[in-house]
Automatic annotation (TrEMBL):
This is THO complex subunit 7A. InterPro entries: THOC7/Mft1. Keywords: Coiled coil, Nucleus. It is found in: Nucleus. One of its GO terms (cellular component) is THO complex part of transcription export complex. It comes from the Eukaryota.
Length: 244
């Protein structure tokens, strides 16, 4: 892991934002370099450099002339020991990498399983939503049925209602019979009244005819009387003239 240092007073961030000594890209480069060189701390000599020195010392010793087999063997053992020391963290790192790969695969499988369960849960939620809507509609229908049932229960029994209907039908039949009788009586009265009007009209015509006849007779009588009066007057004058 990289050694990250926060630049802030007394271990607190400034202005609510953390400030780091290295950027994200530089931090990745440092981590990669430390993994390659097996440098896990800033103290001491890097392991790769120490291994290089051991190998260089062994190589230089082998190039010397003379009886230096013991020194070469000693330096070889030192180099191999340093190589094992350097190799051990690599083996550990490889084991960690393999474990991380397996963990990643397990994580991917777990992620796929979680996604599958999420999809199933969403489908279950949609199904439950549909069931909820259906339950709401069914509950509404039940409430309407209950309301209708209460209204029906509040009404009188069918037998009483039928009695009332029968009584009303009898009254309607009686009223219809009375209406029919009244209509016949009214029709008869209309005919009688029409006959009476006709008789009155005939009587009035007769009276008017008689009145006209009486007037004509009186007029004729007056004319006849006037004629007689004139004749009598004329006769008296002739007799007077004859006497003279």
């Amino acid at each position: 892991a990289s050694k990250i240092r926060k630049i802030s007073g007394r271990g607190e961030t400034t202005g609510g934002t953390a400030h780091y000594a290295f950027g994200a890209l530089e931090d990745d480069i440092i981590i990669k370099h430390r993994l390659l060189t097996r440098t896990t701390t800033t103290r001491g000599e890097p392991p790769l450099k120490k291994l290089q020195k051991k190998f260089t010392a062994f190589a230089l010793e082998t190039e010397k002339d003379g009886e230096n087999y013991a020194d070469c063997e000693r330096l070889a053992r030192v180099f191999l020991q340093e190589l094992k020391t350097f190799e051990l963290p690599l083996v550990k790192t490889k084991a960690v990498i393999d474990a991380n790969v397996r963990e990643k695969e397990n994580f991917n499988e777990l992620n796929d399983e979680i996604n599958r369960r999420i999809v199933e849960a969403q489908e279950d939620i949609e199904g439950l939503k549909r069931m909820l809507e259906e339950s709401k509609v069914e509950r509404k229908h039940k409430e309407e049925c209950e309301m209708i049932r209460k209204l029906i229960a509040a009404q009188p029994p069918r037998s009483e209602t039928q009695k009332v209907i029968d009584e009303l039908e009898r009254e309607i039949a009686a009223l219809e019979a009375e209406n029919t009788a009244s209509s016949r009586t009214l029709e008869l009265r209309k005919k009688q009244f029409a006959l009476l009007l006709h008789v009155v009209d005939e009587l009035q015509n007769t009276i008017e005819e008689e009145q006209r006849s009486m007037v004509e007779e009186m007029r004729m009588a007056a004319i006849y009387e006037n004629k007689n009066t004139v004749e009598d007057a004329a006769g008296g004058s002739a007799e007077a003239m004859a006497i003279d």
